[in-house]
Design brief:
Elements (H helix, E strand, L loop, with lengths): L2 H29 L22 H4 L4 E4 L5 E8 L2 E8 L2 E9 L5 E5 L6 E8 L2 E5 L5 E8 L2 E6 L6 E6 L4 E5 L5 E8 L4 E6 L4 E6 L17 H13 L3
Antiparallel strand pairs: 1-2, 2-3, 3-4, 4-5, 5-6, 6-7, 7-8, 8-9, 9-10, 10-11, 11-12, 12-13, 13-14
Length: 238
């Protein structure tokens, strides 16, 4: 047999073998990255090297940050369950949403069968936030251009988020006291919340103009309930 022919044959077999091994390694590498991603809470690192950034890939993910880029609120989906993570001081809290057969949405502390913090009952013009035993706490009215939060105990403590322009909102507390303002920047798809002195307090990325982040200025509403209302408004794309 011609020696040149044998040389070419050996070279061809070796090259094919190398390509096969390279392909197997590439497939193995791709299987280890990007498909085993898990929900990663703020301040935590992913337990899997090379996993996807769920802050980008998780459907419905919504983050609100302080000016120093510290996350103060994250709403997303973890294992098919609506999950809200927020901070009370330096302590991270998590509440999960249970969708009940009667349409009620129950917010559980820590785990889906944990303590119920609040119940959400929808009505024609928004929703009601009630205690676990059914006591009305806050009534949230949603109409075009206006979101109003009313203390169900006396009907007097009223908080308003009112649209002034197509991209600006005024935020007022009981007695009409001005608390701050919200503006949607369409060019950067960013919402910024400022106090009355124009100091930026919170920001978030959003493709639409939303009222929800303004809720964070209503500090007279108990903190956990404030985040529940915020989560509900986001869920309703408000």
């Amino acid at each position: 047999m011609n020696k040149n022919f044998i040389g070419v044959l050996v070279f061809t077999v070796c090259a094919a073998t190398a390509l096969f091994i390279s392909g197997v390694r590439a497939e193995d590498k791709s299987s280890k990255s990007g498909i085993q991603a898990e929900y990663v809470a703020p301040g935590k690192s992913s337990p899997q090297k090379g996993a996807e950034d769920m802050s980008v890939e998780t459907p419905g993910k919504f983050k609100i940050k302080a000016p120093d880029e510290h996350e103060v609120f994250v709403r997303g989906i973890a294992s098919g369950v609506e999950t809200v993570t927020y901070f009370m001081g330096m302590e991270m809290k998590t509440i999960l949403v249970e969708k009940r057969s009667d349409g009620t949405r129950a917010y559980h502390s820590g785990k889906i069968d944990g303590t119920v913090e609040a119940l959400i009952i929808s009505d024609g013009n928004g929703f009601n936030l009630v205690s676990p035993d059914g006591k009305p706490l806050w009534k949230i009215n949603v109409v075009p251009g206006l979101t109003k939060i009313i203390d169900a105990a006396n009907g007097k403590n009223v908080f308003e988020i009112r649209e002034k322009k197509s991209d600006k909102i005024s935020i007022t507390g009981p007695g009409g006291k001005e608390l701050g303002k919200l503006k949607f920047h369409a060019d950067t798809r960013k919402i910024k919340v400022k106090d009355v002195s124009e100091n930026e307090l919170y920001s978030c990325h959003s493709s639409t103009f939303m009222h929800a982040p303004a809720i964070l200025l209503f500090t007279e509403i108990p903190e956990t309930l404030r985040y529940v209302i915020l989560s509900e408004l986001i869920a309703r794309e408000r």
